[in-house]
């Protein structure tokens, strides 16, 4: 079983090289091969969710503990890891399958699939790594591939967005590396579990706090939390649509939010101050993100701002849990709150991925992204309209879609933890989100356009099969994920992930074995 | 101690370049400076006073070695930095071809 853990990195990484080589002889090879890779990895992560109890550890190189010091590079698969792997590979499969039709019109199709595989290999690597420097290496792998993919269409605005993204991404990576250097200075080890054990007894608290703050800046920039959000709307709206769906759906979670959770729960001891900072950042992102989204007329830009806002919900849910834990409050409330945050993380990946695919379908048929010039697509593109309606209801929290339940859990947890202001803000943001998506639906699909499509000489059809398939799959998931609220299903998928964060100290024991 | 302070100083010079300069190439140079300072910091972390290169040969008892792990990390970080810088410069050149300028004040199609 442990042997299968590196496959999550090795398969997409090998796939990238095979695509690069074989794809240059056989045109269209990468198209199908990439989908097969991610279908396989999705299956593998579902298998792990169903059959694995407790953490699995794989030592790269097979080095055992030497005098209780971990020497090997660790790859760890626990509840949280498996949960994130499922999200990443599922969305990657949907995007890759969607790309089969979408990317056909570009010339460098082969490079696209190579970069796509590399990016996902990097994300999977960040998730399964149990070693600080390894996280940095995989993170850069995912980030550099995503820089190149943002600039994929090589027009003025794509290049500009990519440059902006690269400068801020580069600065954030250096902050992360500096912080890793600090932690190595303090502890002389890079293994997360070992660092956690050593800094618990470390006397120089102010240095640890300094490392924490730089780390939060670095990963905050990667996760595009406000005030570090400036690059996100440009980068996510300039990328090709399947890539936007990957970036917004999983990249900011995998290399931003996930690492924040993992390090601040399992590596550092939870302190009140840091929990407060994380909660405040989450709240700010939630509120300001949605306020910035209202005035947007470019569909993808609007969706990108909503990503900031929805990630705010995730961070807020987890932050409230941290606050409760740091005050030694009721563990049930903390569990509920963190469960809400992680549940919303999955939901956001699904509905935001779907919304970007919808925006891509609209752009594919009409060549337009400006909502003022769109309209009247509902009759001509029934699948796109239907799936987009489902996703919009899901993101604005209308029952029985998944977004309703996760937001409800976060709000209930905020009330139980006596943060009434935060719960009111969460409801308020949800209402503005609804308003904003009513606007999207009306102007894009249902409104009568200023001049009809025939007059403009554009013939609108439904998008090809592969694009329809991905969108329908994700809209079905929007319904099915509501079932995570049912206790028997929740115990299999969500509860192990939550327990990893709530019982933060057990990670060290499980990894080091003492 | 003075070496550490100089490293931080180099980091801040790089950050200043990224934040204040308006030429794309100067921004890239700023990022490269930051990267060098972080690499230097990692090397300093692994340095042991009077240490020799950590190579096992002959007599090892009583010798003091420097920490080899940060050196391995720095090698990796340099390679990653090379990739980042190369991609940044490639994009900067493409921008110059499209816009005809390196000045970020004139490169602003995206806003809102």
Describe the structure.
The complex is a heterodimer of chains A (514) and B (112). With 514 residues, chain A is an all-alpha fold. Chain A has one domain. Chain A has helices at residues 7-25, 29-51, 79-102, 109-128, 132-150, 156-187, 192-200, 205-223, 232-238, 241-267, 272-294, 299-326, 331-366, 382-395, 402-416, 420-446, 453-456, 465-480, 487-502, 506-512; strands at 56-60, 73-77. In chain A, strands 1-2 form a two-stranded antiparallel sheet. The radius of gyration of chain A is 22 Å and the shape is globular. In chain A, 61% of the residues are buried. The model of chain A has no long low-confidence stretch (mean pLDDT 92). In chain B, helix 1 (2-20) packs antiparallel against helix 2 (24-46). By secondary structure, chain B is mostly helical. Chain B has a single domain, classed as Helix Hairpins (Orthogonal Bundle), CATH 1.10.287. The mean pLDDT of chain B is 90. The A-B interface holds A 133, 136-137, 140, 144, 147-148, 151, 154-157, 159-164, 166-167, 170-171, 173-174, 177-178, 181, 184-185, 188, 190, 233-234, 238, 295-296, 298, 301 and B 11, 15, 18, 24, 27, 31, 34-35, 38, 41-42, 45, 67, 69-70, 73, 76-77, 80, 83-84, 87-88, 91-92, 94-95, 98-99, 107-110, 112.
What tags apply to this protein structure?
heterodimer, A: 514 residues, mainly alpha, 75% helix, 2% strand, B: 112 residues
Number of domains of chain B: 1
* Oligomerization: heterodimer
Number of helices of chain A: 20
For the record, the CATH architecture of chain B stands as: Orthogonal Bundle
Low-confidence stretches of chain B: none
Biggest β-sheet strands, sense, barrel of chain B: none
List the strand order in the largest sheet of chain A. Answer: 1-2
Largest sheet of chain A: 2 strands, antiparallel
| Helix-strand makeup class of chain B | mainly alpha
Percent of residues of chain A in helical segments?
over 70%
| End-to-end C-alpha gap of chain B | 46 Å
């Amino acid at each position: 079983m442990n042997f299968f853990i590196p496959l999550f990195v090795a398969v997409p990484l090998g796939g990238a090289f095979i695509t690069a080589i074989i794809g240059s002889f056989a045109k269209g090879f990468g198209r199908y091969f990439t989908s097969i890779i991610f279908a396989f990895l999705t299956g593998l992560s579902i298998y792990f969710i169903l059959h694995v109890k407790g953490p699995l550890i794989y030592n790269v190189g097979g080095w055992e503990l030497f005098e209780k010091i971990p020497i090997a590079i660790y790859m760890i698969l626990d509840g949280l890891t498996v949960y994130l792997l499922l999200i990443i590979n599922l969305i990657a499969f949907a995007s890759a399958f969607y790309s089969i039709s979408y990317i056909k019109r570009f010339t460098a199709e082969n490079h696209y699939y190579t970069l796509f595989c590399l990016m996902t290999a990097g994300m999977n690597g960040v998730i399964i790594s149990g070693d600080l420097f390894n996280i940095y290496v995989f993170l850069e792998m995912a980030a550099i591939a995503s820089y190149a993919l943002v600039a994929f269409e090589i027009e003025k605005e794509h290049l500009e967005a990519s440059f902006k993204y690269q400068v801020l991404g580069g600065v954030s990576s250096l902050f992360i590396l500096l912080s890793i250097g600090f932690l190595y200075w303090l502890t002389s080890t890079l293994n997360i579990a070992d660092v956690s054990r050593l800094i618990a007894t470390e006397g120089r608290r102010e240095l640890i706090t300094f490392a924490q703050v730089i780390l939060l800046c670095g990963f905050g920039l990667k996760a595009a939390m406000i005030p570090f959000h400036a690059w996100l709307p440009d980068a996510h709206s300039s990328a090709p649509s399947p890539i936007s769906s990957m970036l917004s759906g999983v990249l900011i979670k995998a290399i931003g939010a996930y690492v924040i959770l993992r390090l601040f729960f399992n590596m550092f001891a939870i302190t009140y101050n840091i929990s407060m900072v994380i909660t405040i950042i989450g709240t700010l992102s939630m509120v300001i993100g949605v306020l910035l989204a209202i005035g947007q007329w470019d569909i993808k830009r609007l969706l990108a701002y909503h990503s900031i806002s929805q990630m705010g919900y995730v961070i807020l849910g987890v932050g409230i849990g941290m606050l409760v834990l740091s005050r030694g409050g009721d563990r049930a409330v903390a569990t509920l709150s963190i469960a809400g945050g992680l549940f919303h993380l999955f939901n956001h990946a699904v509905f935001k991925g779907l919304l970007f695919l919808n925006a891509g379908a609209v752009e594919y048929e009409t060549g337009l992204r400006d909502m003022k010039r769109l309209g009247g697509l509902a009759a001509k593109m029934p699948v796109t309209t239907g799936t987009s309606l489902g996703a919009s209801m899901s993101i604005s929290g209308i029952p029985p879609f998944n977004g309703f339940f996760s937001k409800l859990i976060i709000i209930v947890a905020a009330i139980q933890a006596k943060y009434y202001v935060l719960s009111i803000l969460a409801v308020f943001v949800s209402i503005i989100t609804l308003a904003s998506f009513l606007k999207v639906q009306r102007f894009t699909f249902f409104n009568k356009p200023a001049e009809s499509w025939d007059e403009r000489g554009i013939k609108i059809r439904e998008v090809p099969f592969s694009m329809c398939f991905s969108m329908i799959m994700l809209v079905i998931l929007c319904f099915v994920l509501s079932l995570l609220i049912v206790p028997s299903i929740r115990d299999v998928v969500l509860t192990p992930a939550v327990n990893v964060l709530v019982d933060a100290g057990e990670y060290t024991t499980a990894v080091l074995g003492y | 101690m003075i070496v550490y302070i100089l490293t931080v100083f180099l980091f801040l010079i790089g950050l200043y370049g990224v934040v204040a300069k308006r030429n794309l190439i100067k921004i890239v140079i700023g990022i490269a400076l930051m990267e060098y300072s972080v690499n230097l910091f990692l090397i300093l972390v692994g340095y042991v006073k009077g240490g020799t290169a950590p190579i096992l040969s002959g007599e090892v008892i009583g010798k003091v070695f420097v920490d080899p792990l940060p050196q391995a990390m720095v090698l990796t970080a340099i390679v990653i930095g090379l990739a980042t810088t190369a991609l940044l410069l490639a994009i900067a050149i493409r921008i110059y071809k499209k816009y005809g300028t390196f000045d970020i004040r004139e490169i602003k199609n995206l806003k809102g």
